[in-house]
Amino acid sequence: MEATQKAGFKAGLAAAAEAVVAAKDVLTKADQAIGDGDHGLGMARGFRAFAEALAKQEGGDAAASLQAGGRALMMSSGGASGAIFGTFFQAAGKALPPGDLPEPAALAAAFATGLQAVRDRGKAKAGDKTMIDAAEPAIAALAAGPQDLALALTGMARAARSGMDATRDMVATTGKARALGERSLGHPDPGAMTFTLWCEALAARMG
Q1: What is the DSSP letter of 178?
Q2: Can you tell me whether residue 144 is helix, strand or coil?
Q3: Which of these, 10, 69, 76, lies nearest to 44 by C-alpha position?
Q4: Which of 73, 138, 170, 176 fits a 20 to 30 Å CA distance from 148?
Q5: Mean pLDDT of 102-117
Q6: What is the model's pLDDT at position 174?
Q7: C-alpha span between 192 and 8 (Å, rounded)
Q8: Cα separation of 113 and 204, whole Å?
C-alpha cells in the first residue's frame, strides 16, 4: 500500500487538479449565484496549468509538486481566486518536508501554513463565506486523523464538504459577493466548493 501511494501522490495531486477543471460548469453556476460568474473559468484555467506543471516536473517530491502547481496556478488563473489558491499551494509546499509520500501530520501542518498565508493575503477569516470555511475544518480533520494517509485524506474531504455546506447559511462579507448581503444566503461559496472538490478527488485517488 505504501509503495503504491509513494508512486501515486504526485498523480493524486494531478488528478485533483483535473477534477477541478472538469467541474468548470458547476463552479461557474455557483459563482453566477453570488458573483460575476468567472470563478469556474479561472479555476479551470489555473488547475489545468497546475496539472501541466506536474507533468513536466521530474521526480515525485510532494513539496516540489505543490510549489510548482501553485506557481503555475497563480500565473495562469488570474483574479483573486487564482492568487488565493496559488498562495495556499506555494506556502504549503514550502512548509512540507521533502519526500514523495508525506505523513498526514506533516501534510496537515503544511496545509495550515498555506491557509495562514491565505489569511494574511486576503484578511478573511472563518465565517466570512470563503474557501477558508472549507479549508479550516478540513485541515483540522487531517491533523486529528489516522496516520494512514488515504484514511486521513478521506476525513479531510468529509470535513471540507461539511464546511462548504455550512457556507450556505453565511452572509458574504468579502469579495464581490459582499454586495449581495443577505441575498448571498442559501448559496455555497464557490471557493469553498473548489477546495472541497479538490480534497475529494485527492482522497479518491489516494484511496
Answers
A1: G
A2: helix
A3: 76
A4: 73
A5: 98
A6: 63
A7: 25
A8: 24
Distance CA 14, CA 96 (A): 18
Q: Where are the domains of the chain?
A: 2-206
Which amino acid, 68?
Answer: A
Distance CA 57, CA 164 (A): 32
The x, y and z cell numbers of residue 106, run together, are 506533516
How many whole angstroms separate alpha carbon 127 and alpha carbon 135? 12
Report the C-alpha gap between 191 and 53 in whole angstroms.
22
Task: Report the C-alpha gap between 1 and 43 in whole angstroms.
Answer: 32
| Local structure of residue 167 (DSSP, 8 states) | G
Quote the cell numbers at residue 144.
486529528
Rounded Cα distance, 8 and 29, in Å: 32
174 phi-psi bin (left φ>0, alpha ψ -120 to 50, beta other): beta
Q: Cell digits for 166?
A: 455550512
Calpha distance 37→145 (Å, rounded) = 35
Apex 198 CA angle, 193 and 199, nearest 5: 100
Distance separating alpha carbons of residues 173 and 155, to the nearest angstrom: 28
CATH topology of domain 2-206: 1.25.40
Residue 104 contacts residue 146 (beta carbons within 8 Å): yes
Confidence bin at 2 (pLDDT 50/70/90): very low
Distance CA 137, CA 167 (A): 12
What is the per-residue pLDDT for 79?
85
Please report which helix (H) or strand (E) contains residue 68, including its range.
helix 62-77
